[in-house]
Amino acid sequence: MIVALIKFIHVFIAMSILGCAITGFVKVSGKHLTSFKLAQCHKLNKIILSLLLCGMILGTALVYPKHYTFHTPWIQAAYLFIAIVILMLGFLRYLIKRQMVKTRIFWQLAYGLLIMMIGFVIRDAVMKSTWLF
Prior knowledge:
Layout: H1 2-27, H2 35-63, H3 73-97, H4 104-127
Helix pairs in contact: 1-2, 1-4, 2-3, 3-4
């Protein structure tokens, strides 16, 4: 029963991350990127980062009860993609604090990459296989 609840929360968090990334992509797709939109992106990055950490912890808690190992290729690919996304968001946060990023195209690229990576993680988890390894 508890494993099913953890799995439900894990999947719910994954869908929330994807929704936040799509929201961020749509927010920065307007003609002008104002300081208000930059502040919203900063908040959205914090939300996505916290959801990623919670999702990774819950995914780790699901490995052994579901009779998998950490050597399963799609689980390894998921950790790789999540690590890349966390590093990317951390780098974006650094750039925001230094006020180096103000272009709309950069933000579209960043959220687009995030959507693609989360899509790959979801695809690998559903198919229980990966094209990476």
